[in-house]
Amino acid sequence: MPACDTRDTWTQFLQFVKTRCSLTAFGNWLAPIRVLELTSEEITLEIPNIFVQDYLLSNYKKELCAFLPVSAQGEPAIRFVIASPQKKQQTTSPTITTQLTSTGVENYPEVKLNHNYRFETFIEGPTNQFVKSAAVGVALRPGHSFNPLFIHGGVGLGKTHILHSIGHYIKEHHKKLRIQCITTEALINEIVDNLKKKSMDRMKNFYRSEIDVLLVDDIQFLQNRLNFEEELAHTFEALKNKGAQIVITSDKPPSLLKLSERTIGKMEGGLVAHMGVPELETRVAILQHKAQQKGLHLPHKVAFFIAEHIYNNVRQLEGAINRLSAQCRLLDLNITEELVSMTLREMLQQAPREKISIEEILKCVAAVFNVRVSDLKGSCRTKDIALSRQVAMYLARLFFNEYQSLIALATYFNKTHSTILHACKNIEKKMMTDEALCEQIGQIRKKIEC
Ligand code: ADP
Ligand code: MG
Asked: Fewer beta carbons within 10 angstroms: which end of the chain, N or C?
C-alpha cells in the first residue's frame, strides 16, 4: 500500500474543520489526535479516548470522506487506536512538575513575555488562521498536539506575537508548567556565558529537565553555528522525549535552513505552519484594531488607502498608525487621505502598484515556473501549467486588489471572476502547507517588487 503524505491530508482536514468549529472544540477534540499511519486505503488515528471517535464520526463524517480514504461502503476508512494509559499519563502530568524544586531553578527569572502579544490582540485572516489555530491547540494542551510546532514566515508578520501568545495562555491556564521563552540569539549568549562560568551542567539541567514549554524565537540565527546547533539539538531531543512542548519560529521553513539534516528532520517532525502576508481585508482590520488601541479614529476609507499601499509587513502598518497618531495629536488634525499621503510619504512610496502591469507579473511567474506567458493566459490543464496559472491569478489579485479590477482580471485571463476567486483561495490554502510553493511565490514577489 503506498504511503501518502500524512501531514498534508490530515492537516488539510484540520484546516478545513478549524474554520467550522470553535477554538475550544478544536483544541479539546481535534488537536490531540495523532496520525499513526496513512495509506491510500486507510488512516490510523491515535485518540486519547473513545469519545473523540464518537465526536469525529458524528460531526465530521462527510468531511472525513472528502479528505481521507473511503471504504467500499462509502464510510471513512479510519482505524482508531486509543493511546495507551502510560502514554496518556506521561503527557498529562509531565514528570517535570515533581522536579521543579530540585536544582537551582529559582535563579532563573520568570518568563518574559510582551504583554501586548496575546491571542486576543491577534487579528486573524485566511493567511494566518492556520498558524493561530495550531498555536491555540498547543496552548490548550501543551505537549499533546503538535510537537514541535514550527512557525515560519516573513519579517513583521506576527510570529513573535503568536509565540508570546502561547506563553501567556499557558502561563495563565497551566500554572504548574514551567515556560522558557527566548530568542535564539539570547540562548546562544547564555550558552557562551555559562561556558565561561563553567556552569554548563546547570544550564543543561535547566533546559533539558526543568522546563515544560520551550518557546524559541528566530531559529535562523542558529545557522552556521555548528557547536550551538548540536547543543540545542540535544536539548530539543531531551525535552521532546519527556513530553515537553517546543515551539520554534523562523524566517524560513526548516528545509531552507542551513542546518544539519538531522536537526531539520527534528524540526519537521511535528507541525510546520506558514504565516502568510495578510490580504487586504485583514490589513484593514489590523489597522482599525491598532488605531482603536491608540484611541485614534481611523475612517474606513483611509484605513483601506493605507492597507493598499503597505502590504507586506504588519510592523509597518503599526508604524504608520503610530506616526499618524503622533501627527494628529501634535497638530490637532483629523485623519484624511491627504494627511496620510503627507505623513507617510516614504512608507507609501514603497508600494509598487502603479509601476506594475499584469504582463510583468505574468513574466515573473513564467520565469520562476519555467512556463510560457501564453500558457498562463491559455486554458491548457496540465498540472504544472494549471498551478502556475492559479499563482498568476493569485498574485495579480494581490497587486490589483479592488473589486472593479477583479472583473478586469477575469477579462484579462478570459475566465469568470469566480474562477479567479477559486484560484486565489486554492493557492492560499496550498501555501499553508506547501513550503516549496511559498518559496516560489516569495521569489516571484521579490522579482515583482524590485
Ligand atoms: P515577526 O516576529 O513575524 O517578525 P512580530 O510578531 O514581531 O513579527 O509582529 C510585528 C508587529 O506586528 C507586532 O507589534 C505585532 O503585534 C503586530 N502584528 C503582526 N501580525 C498581527 C496580527 N495578525 N494582528 C495584530 N497584530 C499583528
Ligand atoms: Mg519576531
From this structure: C
Domain ranges of the chain: 3-83, 97-275, 280-343, 353-449
Q: Which ligand is nearest to the CA of 132?
A: 1
Q: Is the pLDDT score of 349 beyond 80?
A: no
* pLDDT (average), residues 245-271: 93
pLDDT at 111 over 70: yes
Structure confidence by residue, pLDDT tens digits, 22-52: 777 788 789 889 888 877 788 899 988 877 8
Ligand 1 atom nearest residue 157's Cα: 3
Residue 243 CA, ligand 2 centroid: distance in Å: 26
* CATH number assigned to the domain with residue range 3-83, chosen from the 4 options 3.30.70.2860, 3.30.300.180, 3.20.20.70, 3.20.20.80: 3.30.300.180
Closest alpha carbon to 139 in 177, 114, 167, 115 = 167
The answer to whether 77 touches 69, Cβ cutoff 8 Å, is yes
Pairing assessment for the beta strands 34-38 and 43-47 based on DSSP bridges: antiparallel
Task: Give 70's strand partners.
Answer: 76
Return the residue whose CA atom lies nearest to atom 1 of ligand 1: 156
Measured from the Cβ of residue 226, the count of other Cβ atoms closer than 10 Å reads: 11
103 secondary structure, DSSP code: S
Determine the atom of ligand 1 nearest the C-alpha atom of 154. 3
| Architecture in CATH of 97-275 | 3-Layer(aba) Sandwich (3.40)
Strand partners, 394: none
List pLDDT tens digits, range 151-172. 999 999 999 999 999 999 999 9
Q: Does domain 280-343 have CATH number 3.90.1720?
A: no
- Identify the helix (H) or strand (E) that includes residue 329: helix 314-331
Reported confidence tier of residue 86, pLDDT bands at 50, 70, 90: low
Residue identifier of the C-alpha nearest atom 26 of ligand 1: 122
Nearest-CA neighbor of 277 among 396, 155, 162? 155
Do 280-343 and 97-275 have the same topology in CATH? Answer: no
Shortest-distance Cα residue to atom 4 of ligand 1? 156
Question: Is domain 353-449 annotated with CATH 2.40.50.140?
Answer: no
Give the ligand whose atoms come closest to the C-alpha of residue 315. Answer: 1
| Top mutation candidate among 133, 157, 294 for ligand 1, by most atoms within 8 Å of CB | 157
How far does the centroid of ligand 2 lie from the alpha carbon of residue 176, in Å? 27
